[in-house]
User: Which sequence fits this backbone?
């Protein structure tokens, strides 16, 4: 996984340093055989890994969405209530930079 992470560090320059760190942590959770598969890192988990505030993580996630590196989709519960979790999907842009497979047809959504 060191190669894709180095690619992200060297080639992603249009977002803040903290957003790049969050992107690297999301990439480390991803399935390297298909980056189009969703990952489910919680904001609290990213916060612990990076040692920063929740608002910093949320700001970095928003920045990554706006720069088209990730897509965040709420996943609804089967019963009434709040949303269970947010599905994070890396985009084809990240796959191209990291040199990894991106096959949305091979996913279940």
Assistant:
């Amino acid at each position: 996984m060191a190669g894709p992470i180095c690619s992200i560090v060297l080639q992603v320059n249009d977002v803040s340093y903290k957003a790049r760190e969050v992107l690297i942590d999301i990439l480390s959770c991803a399935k390297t055989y298909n980056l189009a598969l969703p990952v489910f890192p919680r904001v609290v988990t990213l916060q612990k890994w990076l040692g920063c505030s929740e608002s910093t993580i949320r700001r970095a996630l928003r920045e990554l969405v706006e720069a088209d590196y990730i897509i965040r989709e709420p996943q609804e519960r089967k019963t009434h209530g709040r949303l269970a979790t947010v599905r994070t999907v890396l985009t084809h842009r990240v796959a191209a930079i990291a040199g990894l497979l991106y096959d949305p047809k091979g996913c279940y959504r």
Observations:
- DSSP finds five helices and two strands in the chain.
- The first strand starts at residue 70 and ends at 75.
- Strands lie at 70-75, 85-90.
- Helices lie at 2-11, 17-29, 43-50, 54-66, 92-98.
